[in-house]
């Protein structure tokens, strides 16, 4: 081999350099720290960013259920044709007793007064709430509805009054509870 060829071979060997063991270890440690930072700090933020969307959906479901309930009559004994007499008035039937609030053995499609919804839970299905199956639109959401007679401050009362309080509690898939309350008067 000539001196010139030997010289070129030496230069090629000098220009071909790889990573040293220390550089590889530093790279692996840096990559590991990056993954730790991503999993501890950044990835949980993605889950929290879904919270506002779930809150908006919970509000939509709560409002839809309240709208449906508040569109019903005050009591089973009330006139649904716009009559002058309302339950509990002189010469009118007595309103439903507080311990008897709840559906009068009818299906949800036939609910006609607000207390029919008392103690209604998701187990009765979201289907039919607004004439469509809401379970597909609100997967993993739960709700509970409670109706009671109300005093003038909106607190539940154990006697018959002219007001019923309707409380809808919607639970998101992350377990957050949102309460929606309305008062229905017998006027």
Main attributes of the structure:
187 residues, alpha+beta, five-stranded antiparallel β-sheet, 5 strands, 33% helix
Give the rounded overall mean pLDDT. 79
The major pleated sheet works out as: 5 strands, antiparallel
Our Rg estimate from Cα atoms comes to 33 Å
Structural class of the helices, strands and pairings? alpha+beta
Q: How large a portion of the residues is in β-strands, by DSSP E? A: 15-25%
Secondary-structure element order, as H and E?
HHHEEEEE
The termini sit apart by 113 Å
Overall 3D form:
rod-shaped
Describe what is shown at a glance.
This protein is of the alpha+beta class.
Care to describe what's here?
The protein has 187 residues and is an alpha+beta fold. The chain folds into 2 domains: 19-49; 53-185, no CATH class. The protein has 3 helices and 5 strands, in the order αααβββββ. Strands 1, 2, 3, 4 and 5 form a 5-stranded antiparallel sheet that branches. β2 (142-150) and β3 form a beta hairpin. The longest helix has 28 residues, at 21-48. The protein is rod-shaped, with a radius of gyration of 33 Å. The model has no long low-confidence stretch (mean pLDDT 79).
Q: What is the secondary structure topology, with strand pairs?
A:
Layout: H1 3-15, H2 21-48, H3 51-70, E1 120-121, E2 142-150, E3 156-157, E4 163-171, E5 177-185
Antiparallel strand pairs: 1-2, 2-3, 2-4, 4-5
